[in-house]
Amino acid sequence: MLELFHFLPPLLSGLWVTIQLAFGGSILAVLAAFAVGLLRLSRKAGLRIAATAYTDFFRGTSALVQLFWVYFALPFWGVELDAMTAGIVVLGLNHGAYGAEVVRGAVQAVPRPQYEAAAALNFTERQTLWRIILPQALPAMLPPFGNLLIELLKSTALVSMITLGDLTFQGQILRAATLRSGEIFTLVLLLYFMLALSISFGVRRLERRLAVGRVRRRPMVAADV
Amino acid sequence: MFDWEFAISILPALLKALRVTLQATLVGISIALLLGLVWAFLGHSGRGLPAKVTAASVEFIRSTPLLVQIYFLFYVAPNFGLTLSPFSAGTLALGLHYSAYTAEVYRAGIEGVPSGQWEAALSLNMGRFLTWRSVILPQAIPPVIPALGNYLVAMFKETPLLAAITVMELLQTAKIIGAQTFRYLEPLTLVGLLFLAVSLVASRLVRRLEVRFGSR
Questions:
Q1: Which B positions 14-53 lie with beta carbon below 8 A of chain A?
Q2: Are B39 and B100 in contact (CB under 8 A)?
Q3: Where are the domains of chain A?
Q4: Shortest CA distance to A193 belongs to which of A27, A55, A74, A18?
Q5: Which regions span the lipid bilayer (chain A) (predicted)?
Q6: What is the band of A223 on the pLDDT scale with cuts at 50, 70, 90?
Q7: For chain B, how far is it from start to end, CA to CA, in angstroms?
């Protein structure tokens, strides 16, 4: 039992790397999701096709293969990224592709007459998007985005395979050094679980914040399959 | 830059490894489909302790990384006298992880069966087992087959994680070729393309299923 306390410092330093990765990856993922999701609804066919190709590519190949490709193969094209940057870029772009579908779905769910009303009021396209459409689409995006962030958090474990010292990596090092695999991996799993719980807690608070002053149209049951 | 001759020369080895990847996917999804049904049963068995324990376990499995679960099974099981080969530990972890997702899908399907069906079975004096087997499941499962199919594609894309415990699947093979030849560009690009090809075909098939079962 006492040894558990010796395990904690390296695990916590790994946890910090995991948190940084998850944070950086999430920001990039949300940015990519909005950019690509809106491009998929563009009126220009070229932009639409490019956005579809992006989502098909990132959703069609494995995240770990993408990570290996960026870290080991990209240097052959003269692009060298350190492990942390490679991790953030791949996690962000990969989950951004899934998020793009969330953005697209939520924007498409905004009733048609809202656009017509905006046009009737002589709103420009940009004003319509920022003031009419997105504020209504945002609440519908939150629950699936919450799930996506948890998926992203879980994917951060992949970077241990390009030797970045995240939580999983530290767990592996400790296991090799002490052979106490049971205790170590249980601890690692619990730490990930706590992170995931705090994400879903945060998203739920944000949902409640955004729901203030709104008529609730659908039950808040997460049918997030 | 990209050496085509080299790429073609390593293709047979990669195609052989693709078979291992596909095998792992099939074994994994079979475990997930069966185990998910078990979770769904236990979760449906009322408000008691089994339902609560099931819900908590499913939540825990869903919220922690598959890679760590794979390590857990592979390295911890021997402590309990159960030594698993890398392939069986890996596919078991895959199946267990995805069973938490398929359980939710089954649950949605089961909840979609009108409650009158339960009452009808009761009034016909059918037993619990018979009700599930011949009334509820035949109505609950077909509508959720497309959703289950999506997890087949998702699982296929997660099999590279098995490389972490030295299963000779696609990624592991590409890594070894890379280490031997100092060229990572061709093997890793080919692995990416193979994944893209298989999962695009698979997701088209899932879409066909959706049409067939009328959920779209």
A1: none
A2: yes
A3: 1-211
A4: A18
A5: 15-36, 57-77, 184-203
A6: very low
A7: 45
Q: What is the pLDDT of residue A170?
A: 92
Domain A1-211 sits in CATH at: 1.10.3720.10
What tens digit of pLDDT does each residue of A89-124 get?
999 999 999 999 999 999 999 999 999 999 999 999
With beta carbons less than 8 A apart as the criterion, state whether A157 and B65 touch. yes
Structure tokens at A190: 């619990």
pLDDT of residue B216: 47
Name the residue of chain B whose CA is nearest to A196's CA.
Answer: B63
CA–CA separation, A105 vs A4, rounded Å?
46
Contacts of B195 in chain A (CB under 8 A): 60-62, 65
**Is there a contact between A131 and A61 (Cβ–Cβ < 8 Å)?**
no
ipTM: 0.86
- Residues, chain A: 225
Residue A117 corresponds to which tokens in the numbers above?
């009303």
- Rounded to two decimals, the pTM is 0.87
Using a CB-CB cut-off of 8 Å, the residues of chain B touching A66 are 192
Q: Which of A54, A65, A69, A77 to mutate: most B Cβ within 10 Å? A: A65
Listed ranges A21-35, B127-141, B180-194; the one with the highest mean pLDDT? A21-35
CATH class of the region B4-213: mainly alpha
Q: What is the pLDDT of residue A6?
A: 79
d(CA A91, CA A30): 11
Residue pair A46/A126 in contact by the 8 Å Cβ criterion: no
User: Residue B65's closest CA among A11, A192, A99?
Assistant: A192
pLDDT per residue over B87-141, tens digit each? 999 999 999 999 999 999 999 999 999 999 999 999 999 988 899 999 999 999 9
CA distance to A9, A10, A146, B127, per residue, from B124 (Å): 63, 62, 45, 9
Q: Which of B25, B35, B85 is nearest to B58 (CA)?
A: B35
Q: How far is B61 from chain A (nearest CA, A)?
A: 9
Question: What is the CB neighbour count within 10 angstroms for residue B15?
Answer: 13
Q: What secondary structure letter does DSSP report for A42?
A: -
